[in-house]
Design goal:
Strand content: 15-25%
Keywords: Oxidoreductase
Distance between the termini: 39 Å
Order of helices and strands: EHEHEHEHEHEHHHHE
Mean pLDDT: 95
Low-confidence stretches: none
CATH superfamily: NAD(P)-binding Rossmann-like Domain
Family: Belongs to the short-chain dehydrogenases/reductases (SDR) family.
Organism: Gracilibacillus salitolerans
EC number: 1.1.1.47
Enzyme class: oxidoreductase
Number of strands: 7
Oligomer: single chain
Helix content: 40-55%
Length: 256
């Protein structure tokens, strides 16, 4: 059974791999044999993830790029190719959020969030997917969506809109890249707040989340690793593409 999830010989590029969730997913890929490029705006935090992977016996390297500045993505793609010779897995995990109310939202803030969550992901994927097509060995692209992509959450208007668009992009590209044996899927996480974020959530907000989460708890970053490894593996999910895979403690199945 373990052979289904063996990623030995695969190269993974983790955009936003220096974040709490992106880092956990990247570490899961490395633990199953993938060589992982950790890409983030903050090189220091990317190097911290790399050290954790290396301490566990994995192979990884940190790279610096900002998906809202596509020239840096083009540069880092060349750097990663020099390091690894190509790639088989692309994990799109960059993200930006804001609680600005809709009537107070500025075009500048809208653009800033969309440049990371949507435009950045779309055009960074374009850069990496072109090389995957040229390699002619297939591959897997995994986008990170959100429960707010299907039913928008209050207080995060722009974020919700960007993630709804990511779902559409995922399904469009699944059809676009299927002839090249490149699968495109998205993971829809529920609430996986980092420890520092949990401390600032109001009691009412936490109660509201729990009332809509049948498992009655927050998710832990490590609980996203299984879905990531599954979607990355050609042997485990070779006929899976265009899927929006929920890892949300049942949030998507609950109303009132």
């Amino acid at each position: 059974m373990s052979k289904l999830f063996d990623l030995t010989g695969k190269v993974a590029v983790a955009l936003g791999g220096n974040s709490t969730l992106g880092g956990s997913m990247a570490k899961g890929l490395a633990e199953h044999g993938a060589k992982v490029a950790i890409v983030g705006r903050n090189l220091e935090t990317a190097e911290e993830v790399v050290k954790e992977i290396q301490n566990d016996g994995g192979e990884a390297k940190a790279f610096q790029a900002d998906v809202s500045d596509l020239s840096t993505v083009e540069t880092v793609a060349k750097e990663i190719e020099e390091w690894s010779g190509g790639w088989d897995i692309l994990l799109n995990a960059p993200g930006m959020n804001s609680t600005t109310p809709y009537l107070e939202l500025s075009t500048e803030e809208w653009d800033k969030i969309m440049d990371v969550n949507l435009k950045g992901v779309v055009f960074a994927t374009q850069i990496f997917a072109k090389r995957m097509i040229e390699q002619q060995r297939g591959g897997s692209i995994i986008n990170i969506s959100s429960v707010s992509s299907t039913t928008p959450l209050s207080k995060v208007f722009t974020y919700s809109a960007s993630k709804a668009a990511i779902n559409s992009v995922t399904q469009y590209l699944a059809r676009e890249f299927a002839p090249h044996n490149i699968r495109v899927n998205a993971i829809i996480p529920g609430f996986f707040p980092a420890e520092q974020n949990r401390k600032i959530l109001s009691e009412d907000r936490v109660n509201s989340i729990m009332n809509h989460t049948p498992m009655n708890r927050f998710g832990e970053p490590e609980e996203l690793q299984g879905a990531t490894i599954y979607l990355a593996s050609d042997k485990a999910s070779g006929f899976v593409t265009g899927e929006l895979l929920r890892v949300d403690g049942g949030y998507g199945s609950m109303t009132i």
